[in-house]
Amino acid sequence: MHPHKAACYMGLLNAAAMLAVGLPTHQLRLALPPAALGLSFLLAVSTSFLAVSLLQWGIRLLGASSAALFSMLEPITSVAVGCLALAESVSRRSLLGCALILAGVALTALASQRQAVEK
Q1: Which of 1, 21, 49, 100 is most buried when burial is the number of CB atoms within 10 A of its CB?
Q2: How far apart, in whole angstroms, are the C-alpha atoms of residue 112 and residue 51?
Q3: Calpha distance 114→106 (Å, rounded)
Q4: H or E, element range at 2
Q5: 87: region left, alpha or beta (phi > 0 left; psi from -120 to 50 alpha)
Q6: Is the pLDDT of residue 109 over 90?
Q7: Closest CA to 59 of 7, 111, 105, 119
């Protein structure tokens, strides 16, 4: 399936689920200023549709295992961007989490490489 088509279906299903839960529980706020609605739309498109499309495209180009390895680095990227772009402080707990993620990615890559050599 084309990545944009898959992202569109996933986005529509997510929107329907949010609407089905948000309206009865009164947690969905529809009365927002136009600027907030526009920014919410941009955030939704960039974090869901664009991200899912790029992931599907990466899976097609790299294969599922390589794309999964790259997607495991996402938390490290968010910590780095938060630190650099938003001047957030990085705690020891965050650094430990980043180190554990990098160790997991490295061990997974080494195991995959070892299996490829044995075959």
Answers
A1: 49
A2: 25
A3: 12
A4: none
A5: left
A6: no
A7: 7
As given in the structure block, the two tokens for residue 43 are 């955030």
Contacts from 97-101 at CB under 8 Å and sequence distance 24+?
101/72, 101/73, 101/75, 101/76
- Please state, in angstroms and rounded to a whole number, the distance separating the CA atoms of residues 74 and 54: 13
Amino acid identity for residue 80 in this structure = A
Q: What is the pLDDT of residue 77?
A: 86
Tell me the helices (H) and strands (E) count for the chain, helix number first: 6, 0
Q: How confident is the model at residue 95 (pLDDT cuts 50, 70, 90)?
A: very high
Q: Summarize pLDDT for 37-60 with one digit per residue, the tens.
A: 888 888 887 777 777 788 888 888
Q: Is 7 exposed, middle or buried (0-12, 13-18, 19+ CB in 10 A)?
A: buried
Confidence check: pLDDT of 105 > 80 = yes
Q: Dig out the tokens for 78 from the structure.
A: 């968010």
What is the average pLDDT across 90-110? 89
